[in-house]
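User: ok so my PI wants both of these folded by tonight, can you help

Assistant: No problem, let's get them done. Here's the first:
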Amino acid sequence: MYWNRKVKALLFAVFCMGGFVFLAGFSKAKQEEKICKKVNIKIDNEYNNYFLSESEVMALLTRNGRQPLTGMKKEEIDLKRLEMRIKSHKFVRQAEVSRDLEGNINVTIQQNRPIARLLSTEKDVYLDEEGNQLPLSALYTAHVIPVTSSIVTSPKSGSFFQDSVGTAYLSLLRFIEKDPFWNAQLAHMDIDQKGRVSFLTQVGDQHIEFGKPVHVEEKFKKLFIFYKEVMPVVGWDKYSRLNVEYRDQIICE
């Protein structure tokens, strides 16, 4: 009797396992047969950048309409290849392509974020927070600080902000971009041949001589105190030149 119960239990387990395998296979076959009816595209505009449009992403996915996704079965769609197509776009920082239970394609995109614009007679490009150069876009213009410098914008200096010297200037630009006050107040940044930084301002028309990108927080703290406590008393047009290059002092003219 004991062995009969054991055999029955074993047969039941085998039957259940077989049923599970059958249902899983059936479900998989059904999924494989499902046809893509729609492509859903979500572009993350967290920083109010609009360099990509849904139509542009769709053009990347379908090779400008030559390889449409709608009407295709699951096994005919290579998700990884679609991701690579999207990531080839300069303004795409991250992309994920997946499929839902209905067989439709879902695309999620994070955009690169420009923090400055490099200007010269040779080039006019954006700079992202990693130091990469990005092309301008016909869709959107980012409101970021313009930067001029012959040592930065020459044709051979494409990776300046990523080398051992340039990373300090990139950190300075990151600081400005993240600080609400200085991001609004600084209108232009220049780097001279000796690597010294200077700024033009939005309000007050001052020329700020910042020096090398060292002790950045300390220099901006001095400037902020000056703007907050001195400028309202003497007037915003009193000084045309401010120098914070040297520690513990501000030179005004």
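One down. Here's the second:
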Amino acid sequence: MSESNTTSHGGKRANAGRKSHYTEKTVVMRVPESKVMAIKEWLKPVPKDDRQNTIQLNPIHLQTELSIPSPLESVAAGFPSPAQDYIEDYIDLNKYLVKNPASTFILRVDSLSMKNAGIDAGDQILIDRKLNAEHGDIVLALINNEFTVKRFMQDKHTEHGFRFWLKAENPDYPDIYPHGEENIAIWGVVICILKKLK
């Protein structure tokens, strides 16, 4: 076979091969099989705290009234009989969702730190500034001029009364334990999650 008919296979090609996840040299280690999952979890990147310097809060404008029929009886499954007169009253969604229009705002969430509380990135929440935060409430907190949405938690301390902290409802995000030198304020209490299912 002449050299002109031979073809070259293999060899290093530009942009070929497995891409490295790291910018430095990697090494191979032998670890006990029972520790593999724990090490993989430890190596996962931890999301940074989701505090934001600026957020867009939209005030509520109650311009129209929207009344929805309210059933007379609760229904476990299915629908009540068409022959049954089950309409008792009507609910105005404005009054049902918003108790204090002048102090209520809408915020679009841009984080997954409250995912296990039913708040996904892109969801909108209603925040009432007039309400005082109680243990277990979801709040919009202002920490050193940075905003974050977390669950307000209180622990009782015998020496100093109550201590509060902010709980993330996603194990991938850190809880926030305020320090004495930090400037912290609870800006408002979340009263509703506006989530469209379809």
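The mean pLDDT is 78. The helical segments are 36-43, 93-97. Good luck tonight!
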